[in-house]
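Hi team,

Below is the intake form for Permease prefix domain 1-containing protein from Rhodococcus sacchari. Please confirm the fields before the structure is written into the shared record.

FORM ID: S-0412
PROTEIN: Permease prefix domain 1-containing protein
ORGANISM: Rhodococcus sacchari
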Amino acid sequence: MTVDAHLESRIADWRGYVADHRVIAPADIDEMEDHLREQISDLMSVGLTDGEAFLVAVGRMGGVDELSREFAQEHSDRLWKQLVLSRTDRGENSGRTGELAVVLGLALGAGLAVRAGFEWLSESALLRNAAVLILPFLAAYFAWKRTMPARTIAALAVPFILAAVVLNVFPFEPGGATEIVAAIHAPVVLWFAVGFAYTGGDRRLHRRRMDFVRFTGEWAVYLALLALGGGVLTGLTAGAFDALGIDLEPFLEQWIIPFGPAGAVIVAAWLVEAKQQVVENIAPVLTRVFTPITILMLVALFVAVVASHSVVDVDRGLLILMDLILVLVLGLLLYSISARDPYAPPNVFDLLQIVLIVAALAVDVLMLAAMAGRIAEFGFTANKVTALGLNLVLMVDLLWAAKLGISFQRGRSGFAAVERWQTRYLPVYAVWAMFAVVAIPPLFRFV
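The structure came back. Fields below:
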């Protein structure tokens, strides 16, 4: 697609939005479009790119500024929002009074919930319920921030209540395979509930889903930074008190361990909302650094497994690690897509993304072959069924993503098709995670 074609596509999107959301005569829309094109031409003549000129021109549309803001909120690309939205428009009520107090209150609430879990639950039950204890507070933050109506908030509470019931009513064998399967997949299900709150209850908008994917990546970055900083600070403090002959271990176990991670989950989300531009500047850098590294890792693992083992005899621990790696690859792929300018033409990095997908597919096929061999030899277990299902879900996603990526690279389709496939496929992961929590334990008698 040429530069002119990209510009025409953007103008067509803007014109369509104006026509759909205002009762304006076609002649008036034509006049507005002429004015927009004049602005774009003037801006390009002083050195702006077509994309930059388009965004600035829309921001200067005068009488349709409110319409431009609405369009920006629905098509919430980061650059668009930075240029079109005013400071008070950004982040949907980001400037509400007392937000920090709300964040700290919710972080404290999450810490108290985990602290209560330490007192009243067994170790296995605590791990199983960790997401139920913490994530409702994160969902509550977004429900408050998006000013969700009471009816929608009530609907938002349903998955958390059901998860709590299932995780605590099912007669799991402590430390059994089905308990571990449920403990791993429950946070995935509830993270989608958090996503519902993040989008303000609007599940239909493709861009809002992609925004949540971007938020997830940025949240992980901030959470890692908080964990690193908090770990260093805690270690130094404990060392200093130890040098004074004071044992801080009881205090750390009773207060820091319950409150630190739980509070960091909420604070990291607030930092993403408050400091979006900071992470946005490093997001493309992160994806470009880790994509080639991940490709090399996948290729090396593939070669090592094929060279060192019969595929059928691959160790179960290795299968689990490889599945975790594939999930991380999927996360990197989604974050890369969310951080990319959807209007930019294909480039070398897009080609690297295709290579990453192909490498992940090769590893996925290898893992499926290994699992098929183990199932044929030892029969079905909860772990094998869970891993097999996950690998099949991943394979469908990666196969179609590879097809769309190649089509985009060849200029046969736009990048929007790549984005839409991922946002439409995301609910499949939620459905599979729900199946793993609700159906797999009783199928294998909670062992």
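SUMMARY LINE: Residues 72-95 have pLDDT under 50 and may be disordered.

Thanks, M.
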